[in-house]
Design brief:
Number of helices: 3
Strand content: under 5%
Number of strands: 0
Order of helices and strands: HHH
Shape: rod-shaped
Length: 133
């Protein structure tokens, strides 16, 4: 009778564990710690990934705005040189426009590389290796 009660109790515990209503008592503590560490890693990496996506969107909006500023320098350069006969000031604004354009080009490359190299790898890590662990 004790044997049947023990088997029934173990079966009941296993059913509860499968349903997720009770913590698994048959796992060694080291596996529980590893499982918790993996879950914590998944949560943190997912949070970092989401923040990087948000940063990328904000950075792209800033890049677009700064490209517009470079264009405004170019328009003002042309106006100074043609309409007001200030070629030296127009030339200076032309250099500022070139600098602004190059800076935003490099910023765009940086953001794209961050997105490709870091964020996409974090996404793959969360969706692949950590999920399979």
């Amino acid at each position: 009778m004790k044997k049947i009660g023990k088997i029934y109790g173990e079966a009941k515990i296993n059913v509860r564990e499968m349903m997720g209503s009770r913590e698994n008592t048959t796992e060694p503590p080291s596996i529980k710690r590893q499982t918790q560490a993996i879950e914590d890693s998944r949560v943190h990496i997912k949070d970092i990934y989401k923040r990087m996506l948000k940063q990328g969107k904000l950075a792209q909006a800033l890049i677009d705005e700064n490209v517009g500023i470079g264009g405004a320098f170019g328009e003002y350069q042309t106006q100074l040189a043609v309409d007001y006969d200030f070629p030296s000031l127009g030339e200076l604004l032309g250099h500022i426009m070139e600098f602004q354009t190059k800076a935003e080009e490099y910023n765009t490359r940086l953001q794209n590389n961050i997105q490709q190299q870091v964020a996409n790898q974090l996404k793959e890590l969360v969706k692949g290796e950590i999920r399979n662990a």
